[in-house]
Amino acid sequence: MNGHRLLQLAIVFGLSWFTVPAFAQSAERPESHVGDRWAWQPTNGLAKEKDTTKIEDVIEVTDTEIRTRLRTKGQPNSAIAAYTRDWNQIDAVTAQYDPYLKKFEFPLQVGKTWHSTADKMLFGNGKHGKFSIKGEVAAFEKISVPAGTFDSYKIVLTMDAVSTDEDVRMGQTKEIHWYAPVVKNDVKVDNTFSRDGRVRSQDIFELVEYSLR
After folding, report:
1. Angle at 153 between CA 90 and CA 64, to 5 degrees
2. Is residue 55 one of the residues assigned to a domain?
3. What distance in Å separates the CA atoms of residue 207 and residue 141, rounded to the nearest whole number?
4. How far apart are CA 195 and CA 62, in angstroms?
5. Is 20 inside a domain boundary?
6. Which residues contact 68 (CB under 8 A, 6 or more apart)?
7. Residue 81 belongs to what domain range?
8. How many domains does the chain have?
9. What's the mean pLDDT in 7-34?
10. What is the DSSP letter of 197?
C-alpha cells in the first residue's frame, strides 16, 4: 500500500475517531415564534381507541412566556395555555402551576437529571395539590410517528402528587417525552397515571403534522 493511500486511510479513520456521537450532543432551548403549529393524534392506551386530533398554535411570545391556543380539530371552541420560554407549563387550561411544571431543563443531554416541585391549583374549585417531579434525559434515539421519523431525546418524568386538600388524591404520573429538536417540541408523549398500585389511565400523543415560522 503506497504512502498516499495510507494517508487517506489515516484521515478517514482519524476523523471517525473524533466524531462526536449523537448521544453526546445537546439540544439548546428552542426559539419559538408566533404561528408555530403542531397537531397530535391522541390515543387511549388502555382502551386502544383514538381520539380527535389536538392542535396547538403559538399566539404570543414574550421575554418570559409562550402563550398557545389549544383546540380539537373540527370543533369551534379553543382554550389558552401558558408556558415558560423553556416550554414548562404555567397555565394548563384547567389548572395553574406555581411556579411551573418543570418538564424540560435545557440544554438537553443524555444523562442529565433534575428535581423540582410545583403547586397545582384547579380553576374549577380552587383546590390545591403539590407535585414532586424527577426528570431524566434517558436516551437519544430515532422514533417514528405519523409525521415522520425523528432523532429525539427520550425524557422520563416521574411526578408524585401529594394531597394538600381533602379531595386532592395522591397518585403518580409517569410521562415519557420524545423531544425532537427539528420539531422544537415533542413528537410523542406517553402519560400513565397510577394510584393505589394500579394503572388508572394511559394517554398517548403522536405528532401528525407541524409547521414552524
Report:
1. 25
2. yes
3. 16
4. 38
5. no
6. 56, 57, 58, 59, 80, 81, 82, 83
7. 51-211
8. 1
9. 57
10. T
Phi and psi (nearest 5°) for 22?
-60, -35
Q: Are 102 and 114 in contact (CB under 8 A)?
A: yes
Distance (Å, whole) CA 213 – CA 210: 10
Supply angle C-alpha 48, 53, 58, rounded to 5.
135
**pLDDT digit string, tens, across residues 155-174:** 999 998 876 775 555 788 99
Q: Which of 176, 199, 203 is nearest to 49 (CA)?
A: 203
Q: Is 176 inside a domain boundary?
A: yes
The contacts of residue 89 (CB under 8 Å, 6+ apart) are 81, 82, 83, 97, 100, 101, 103
Cell numbers for 96, please give them: 395553574
What percentage of the chain reaches a pLDDT higher than 90?
Answer: 66
Query: Is the model's pLDDT at 9 over the cut of 70?
Result: no
Which grid coordinates belong to 213? 415560522
Q: What is the mean pLDDT of the chain?
A: 86
Residue 26 within a domain = no
CATH number at residue 130: 2.40.360.20
Phi/psi at 52 (5° precision): -75, 145
